[in-house]
Design a protein that fits this description.
CSD_CS, transmembrane helix, OB fold (Dihydrolipoamide Acetyltransferase, E2P), transmembrane, 19% helix, five-stranded antiparallel sheet, alpha+beta
Length: 181
């Protein structure tokens, strides 16, 4: 049975209050969750109709509350059932597919990685042109003071291991002795 009354006490911080029934009797507890979801906050003195139910401890509480002074809440059709701003299936599926594609690309790139970083590609040996005879060969020399020309120092820097001829790592060896003048 529906009862009519007015909201006489309201604690907005805690989200509950009490309704005084028009026909008299004790005040009835009401929780914010029982109000229509129309975006309006409850206000003291507001007329409302409600049904009475009992809480676990046996005290009366208002349920199925209607506020006749408020504009009626429009029920959403099936088409409008989604909340605005919430993505539908397509809006969820596209980002998921994008994440999967990026992950697959990253996995493929990582699995091809051999652990070395190379700025210049490896030279490709061809069999149709004979290699020019080398004027220089790696013989253990590692310092600029052991070189006789810029050309020799460049050969050693590019082809021999553990050389110490490019202090600033710019690819030009022996800049103070041979290749900087």
């Amino acid at each position: 049975m529906r009862t009519e009354g007015k909201l006489t006490k309201w604690n907005d911080d805690r989200g509950f209050g009490f309704i005084t029934p028009n026909q008299g009797g004790p005040d009835v507890f009401i929780h914010i969750s029982e109000f229509p979801r129309d975006g309006d906050r409850p206000s003291i003195g507001e007329r409302m109709s409600f049904e009475t139910d009992f809480s676990k401890d046996g005290k009366p509480r208002a349920v199925n509350v209607r506020c006749p002074d408020r504009a009626p809440v429009r029920r959403a059709s099936r088409k409008d059932a989604r909340e605005p701003g919430r993505p539908g299936l397509f809006g969820k599926l596209v980002p998921l597919m994008l994440v999967i594609a990026i992950g697959a690309y990253g996995y493929k790139a990582f699995s091809r990685y051999d652990g070395s970083f190379s700025a210049a590609p490896e030279p490709i040996a061809t069999t149709d042109t004979p290699a020019a005879p080398a004027r220089f060969h790696c013989d253990g020399r590692t310092h600029c003071s052991q070189m006789t020309s810029c050309e020799e120092a460049t050969f050693f820097l590019r082809n021999c291991p553990n050389v110490k001829m490019d202090g600033n790592h710019d690819g030009v060896p022996c800049e103070m002795q041979w290749c900087g003048r």
